[in-house]
Amino acid sequence: MHVISVVVWFGGLIFINAVFIPIVEHQEATKLQVVLGTQKRFLPFIWSCFWSLLMTGILLMLLSPKFLWFEYSTLWSKLLAIKQVALLLLAFFSWQTVQVFSKMEQAVGNDSDEFEGWRLGLKKLIRRSIFWGIVALMCGAGMAVS
Ligand code: HEM
Fold first, then answer.
1. R_g of the chain, CA atoms, integer Å
2. How far apart, in whole angstroms, are the C-alpha atoms of residue 35 and residue 33?
3. Which residue puts its alpha carbon closest to atom 41 of ligand 1?
4. Is 133 in the pocket of ligand 1 (CB under 6 A)?
5. Which of 1, 29, 107, 120 is the most buried (most CB within 10 A)?
């Protein structure tokens, strides 16, 4: 369940960033309702993956013989700490993503560059989340072998 949450969350963000957005930009279709609807439909998946990752992570942590409270001398516990910080950052970026997306929806009807400004902000947030997701994934892999 822990790994499935990682695959759905970051697999979805990588698809949106590397496949969906480039096609939409090439077709100049960034303001179409179906495009905004597709991105909006993925937002609840981010939160369900966040909560299942946190809950399964805490369970895995408490069930692991390697885990000691407030002890960070081993590589395993250091990697775990990095992952916990990464998940906190990802929660903040995901909250920002929801705020920026609603600003985009409000600005879609305007002729100004406001919509484009928020859209580029959303792209930055998606890439930042992908980066920290990969960092946490590497830490998870490191924990599995340490
Ligand atoms: C974005 C955040 C996270 C990602 C990408 C992630 C990813 C992973 C991956 C890929 C594994 C290896 C699974 C395996 O061995 O097959 C793992 C294991 C684990 N994760 Fe996470 N995780 C994240 C957040 C967390 C959090 C927040 C916690 C604790 C609160 C946590 C606790 C654990 C534990 C205890 C293990 C088992 C490590 C071991 O094999 O000894 N993870 N995680």
1. 18
2. 5
3. 144
4. yes
5. 107
3-state secondary structure 46-70: HHHHHHHHHHHHHHHHHHCCCCCCC
Q: Which residues make Cβ contacts (< 8 Å) with residue 4, sequence separation at least 6? A: 52
Exposed/middle/buried for residue 121 (C-beta within 10 Å: 0-12, 13-18, 19+): middle
Atom of ligand 1 nearest to the CA of 67: 35
Task: Give the DSSP per-residue string, 80-135.
Answer: HHHHHHHHHHHHHHHHHHHHHHHHHHHHTT-SSTHHHHHHHHHHHHHHHHHHHHHH
140 lines ligand 1 (CB under 6 A): yes
Q: Which pLDDT tens digit goes with each residue over 61-88?
A: 999 999 988 888 999 999 999 999 999 9
Cα–Cα distance, 91 to 133 (Å, whole number)? 11
